[in-house]
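[job 4471] stage=fold_predict status=RUNNING
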Amino acid sequence: MKASSRCRVLACLASKEWGWQKNTMKMVYISLIRSCLDFAAPAWQPWLSATRFQNLEVTQNKALRIMTGQAKTTPVEALRAEAGVCSNRLCVKAQEKAARLLADHPKNLALCSSNQHRLQRSSWREQASLLDSLPSEMKDRQPMSLLQIPPWISRAGPAGTWCVYTDIQGNGRDGDYEVLKNETLRCIESHKLVLTLYTDGSASDGTFNGGAAMVITSGPADSLTIVDVWKRRGSLLTSSFEEEKEAMSMALEWIISNEPEDRILICSDSQSLLKAIENDSEETCEVRAKVLQVKNGVIFQWFLDTWTSQEMKQLTRRLRKLQQ
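[job 4471] inference complete, writing structure tokens
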């Protein structure tokens, strides 16, 4: 009843002379009507009888006919195709998410379970029949990792903590070259660590032909010694942020495999990546999972790339060639 009454709003906006466009009316439909029909839907829709569920379908079809201007005799599937509202889309999405999760995840267990509901109710497991009709080459799935690190795992590692510094003390980008250089060097030296890893990643025009690199250095920041260099070619379609993240993953992989005795300083010129790590962004879930495997802790430091030495500039040129 609530959704049906809101169909009057669409009817008022669907005038033939001055009515809104279909895409604009679809936004109204999703905001006012579909949100009402799907409110807390996973909790109550599986318990509905076929008759009650059909009542919701009729209400939705009424809204779609007003939105698209179709006649009452238009087939339902054609009506949904015209409106861009796919049948059983939520069920298909639920089934696909469950299939990508780990085998012991409750949702995956519910998908693979052969037990039927005691009331013989339908659910997303039976409704998501679209996936069965897909060609075999489209059924290869990439495993879906959890979006967040479990809240009971803190930033405190077994032998230390990991810290993120997204700025340097001083005038920052407002100073001249020598000021920026000295401030950056002083900031890096203040950590007083033996090894420092520098990461860099980029993509042509920020969207394709990416590449990532990681440099292990020792000694003072103003006269560093390059110990090793890791390079990795990126994807054809990518972004600078993804390549920066890949370079950070390479640095963490090196730390995990070599198990240095002291904490390691990782310097990155991507302030957005370090802020995403600091704020526990979903995009850095895999990076933070690797940090938790480091025994002695990690320090992340943002640095200005204007001071880079001749060796780092040569590495940047090699990285550009690698991208091409």
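[job 4471] summary: The mean pLDDT is 78.
[job 4471] exit 0
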